[in-house]
Each structure stands twice: as structure tokens, then as C-alpha cells.
Amino acid sequence: MSIVWAKLGISVISVLLLMLMLFRKSVLTKWLENQGVRVTLLSGWVLFRLLPFIAIYLIAGLATTSDVNGFWDEGSKASQGMIVYRDFWSPYSPLYAYFLGIWLKIWYDSKMIVLTMAVMDGVALFVSWHFFRPFQSRGVFLFNALVYYILPGALVLCIVGAQEDVWMWLFVALAYLVRERKVGVAWYSFILAIGLLMTKAIFVLILVPLFLIEKEKIRFMIPMIIVGIISLGILYPLVGWEFTQPMDEAQTLRAPNIPAILNPWFNNHIGVGEKFWNWIGLVASVGLGCLAAWRLRKADFRIMLSRVWVVLYATMMVVQQSAYSNYIFLFLIPLVFYVINWKSPVQVILLLIFNILCVVHPSYWWRLGMPCYMSPQDMVSSTELLTDYLMQVAIVLMTGYFVWLAFPKKSQRI
Questions:
Q1: How far apart, in whole angstroms, are the C-alpha atoms of residue 142 and residue 126?
Q2: Cα dihedral sign for 246, 334, 6, 323?
Q3: Number of folded domains in the chain?
Q4: Is pLDDT at 163 greater than 90 in this prediction?
Q5: Secondary structure of the chain in the HEC alphabet?
Q6: Where, by residue number, does the polypeptide cross the bilayer (predicted)?
Q7: I need a surface site. Which of 25, 171, 370, 411 has the fewest CB within 10 A?
Q8: Which of 410 and 259 is assigned the larger pLDDT?
Q9: Whole-angstrom distance, CA of residue 197 vs CA of residue 207
Q10: How far apart are CA 48 and CA 42, in angstroms?
Q11: What are phi and psi of 88, to 5 degrees?
């Protein structure tokens, strides 16, 4: 449980620092109005990404753990020219391992995986500056950027967990910025297609609401179809149907999610683990995302995307039985920069608690042996299991609250 206590300790320190920042928010925001964006973002990255990396992995000499070792297995083999899905298993899109492999050419060590994630996180935040700048002053954006850097859901999941989920937001925001430069729908669609090939299969979910509100639907689809055909033309002769390996992730049972917390109350009679739960999760998340997009179809694209992104992927985190709370890293940027009202003590306090729980729970659950509760007696059979179950319930309820915040109300149908 040492990793659990370490994550909890880092999270508590982060939250205390954030509370001090929030107490002096007006002063800091005013000061940041006169600071350079690039310098401030880079300074924040050095303080809250590079220095923690150096302290944890180079000075303390701690070894990489968990997902990092899986990424190392993929990236190291890809860097040696092995074929994804054929020579090594991967739950990610085909270009993901090769992108990691490029970085490993610089430093052939699993720690380089963590540094890569830190760099990509910094790039995602820089792209977000250009994405959100029409709606936020420099001081407000930079204050939110520092908050994001320090939040446990970003700091711990990036530097300790080396999660890549923020890449998805990076690609969708970058695609919009390219389109904004009036280069046409084709390049916008092409970057989205590359994003799908670079990240994971769930990236395809956002394409459904984007297609729904897209006026130039044919031009939107053509680049994706071309990229898809070329990808299949390369992959199928090399690996056959093994390129469907990422879809196997949908069969992996994780927690917390709605089926997991309901299952014990129905004595394991709701079919947890069955494929129909995957379909229910898919319909629920994409359906809510499409409804939110349709309600905001006349709004600025950035407003629409920020809300739809949180609605879609936060919903997915608690309805899809293969999802787990690390997915907070996927939607944390739009949640922090656009959805949360930083003048609301309730929203801020819940966000901080939510971050701590989402960071700590995956490691706690894993070290308990990934329990699946079959009956109410299972939940109370030990203090550790009861703690785990209560954390699951809290995460699901708070996720629902943030989905509700992001979902456009009738008064927000612009």
C-alpha cells in the first residue's frame, strides 16, 4: 500500500497549496495579467512536472510502476522495429507505441515514458491557451493553468501514473485551431483521424457528436475514410484481425462504475461483465454527448466542445464497465478551464475531493485484489473493502454532478 500512501500524501500537499492559491486568487490573477503566457506556462511546467520527475525518479531513484511498465514494453519493442499487435500486444491505437519508441531513441529507459507524458501534458496546456483565449483574460487562464498543474488528477496521474489520456484533448483542440485558420474541413478531419491512430479507440466517440453538428459532413468524412483505408491496407496484411486488440479492453472489468456499485445490491444478478453493459454504456455516453452537442449547435465551437467533452467522457467513466477513475485526466482540462465556477465553494471543494479520490482509488482497488462485490455482505466483510466501496460510490456520484454541471440547460441553448 506504499504507493497508495504516496499518492495520498502528494494529493493532500497539492490540495493545501491550491487552497492557499484560491485564497489569494484575485491578487494572483491580477499579477498574472502582466506575465508572459509562454514563460509562465513553461515555468509552471518546470516547477510542477519536471522538478517532481527529477525528485521522484532521479534523486529518490524510485522505479516506474503500473501502466508505465506496460508502456515501456510497447514502446521499447516498437523502437526495435517490431510490429504492433503481431509481435507485441497493445490496447492502444497503432501509432501510440511507435510515438513512444521515438522518444526512447533519445533515452532508452522506462523513465523516459514518464517524461514523454509530462512533455505532452505541457503541449496540451499550451494548445489550450489558444483554444480558450477568446473567453478568458490572460490572468484568468494562467491562474487556471497553475491550478491544473497542481491538481492531483493532473500532477499525480501524469508524473506517477504516466497516463496519456490528455493526448485526446490535445488532438481535438489542435484540430479545431487548424480549422480556425481557415485551411478547410479536410485538415481538421485529418488531424482528428491522426488523433484516433495516436491515442486509443475511445477517441472515436467524440467524432459522433462532431459529425452530428458538422455542416460539411461529406468533406468531414472523406479524409477519415482515406486514412482508415490506408491504415487497414497496412495493418491487415501484417497482423490480420489482431488490430482489433484495443477492443478487448471493453471486456476488462474495472471500478468504479455504476454496474460495479449496483451489483452487490442485486446479489450479482444484473449481468456484470456481459457485453450488453458495454452497449448500454456506449449508448448512454454518446447519446448524452450528442444531445449536449445538439443543444449547443449554435454556440461557439469551443463552448460546445468543452461541455460535450466533459459530458461524454465523464459519463463514459462511470457507465462503461471497463473504465476507471484515471479517466479524470481525459476531461480535466475543459472541466477546470470552462465548466467549474471558481466562485462556487461547493464546486471547488467537490473538485478537490474528486481529484484525491480519483488518484488514490485505482491503486487502492488494485492492491485489494480488484474486488467485485457480489452481495451487501461482501462490502462490509472488512474495513478495507467498505472503504473501497464508499470511495467508488463517492466517485460515481461526484462524476454525475460534474456531468450535470457541464450538460447544457435550457437557458444555455445558444
A1: 10
A2: negative
A3: 1
A4: yes
A5: CHHHHHHHHHHHHHHHHHHHHHHCHHHHHHHHCCCCHHHHHHHHHHHHHHHHHHHHHHHCCCCCCCHHHHHHHHHHHHHCCCCECCCECCCCCHHHHHHHHHHHCCCCCCHHHHHHHHHHHHHHHHHHHHHHCCCCCHHHHHHHHHHHHHCHHHHHHHHCCCCCCHHHHHHHHHHHHHHHCCCCHHHHHHHHHHHHHHCCHHHHHHHHHHHHHCCCHHHHHHHHHHHHHHHHHHHHHHHHHHHHHHHHHHHCCCCCCHHHHHHHHHCCCCCCCCHHHHHHHHHHHHHHHHHHHHHCCCCCHHHHHHHHHHHHHHHHHHHCCCCCHHHHHHHHHHHHHHHCCCCCHHHHHHHHHHHHHHHHHHHHHHHCCCCCCCCHHHHCCCHHHHHHHHHHHHHHHHHHHHHHHHCCCHHHCC
A6: 6-23, 44-63, 112-132, 139-162, 186-213, 220-239, 276-294, 301-318, 324-341, 348-366, 386-407
A7: 411
A8: 259
A9: 13
A10: 10
A11: -155, 150
Entry field: residues in the chain: 414
Question: Which amino acid appears at position 2 of this protein?
Answer: S
Predicted TM-score (pTM) of the model is 0.95
Q: Which residues contact 33 (CB under 8 A, 6 or more apart)?
A: 137, 138, 139
Tens of pLDDT, residues 291-318: 999 999 999 999 999 999 999 999 999 9
> C-alpha angle with apex 46: 42 to 49, nearest 5 degrees?
115
Q: Read off the C-alpha cell for 174.
A: 489542435
pLDDT of residue 264: 94
Query: In this predicted model, what pLDDT tens digit does every residue of 62-110 receive, in sequence order?
Result: 888 878 999 999 999 999 999 999 999 999 999 999 999 999 999 999 9
Q: Which three cell numbers stand for residue 327?
A: 479517466
> What's the mean pLDDT when you consider all of the chain?
94
For residue 202, what are the domain limits?
2-412
By mean pLDDT, which of 28-37, 207-216, 249-258, 324-333 is the weakest?
Answer: 249-258
The yes-or-no verdict on residue 244 having pLDDT over 90 is no
Which among 174, 190, 187 is positioned nearest to 226, based on CA atoms? 190
97 residue type, one letter: A
Residue 369, pLDDT score: 92
The predicted pLDDT at position 323 comes to 83
**Residue 176 phi/psi, 5° resolution?**
-65, -45
Question: Angle at the Cα of 206 (from 200 to 209), degrees rounded to 5?
Answer: 160
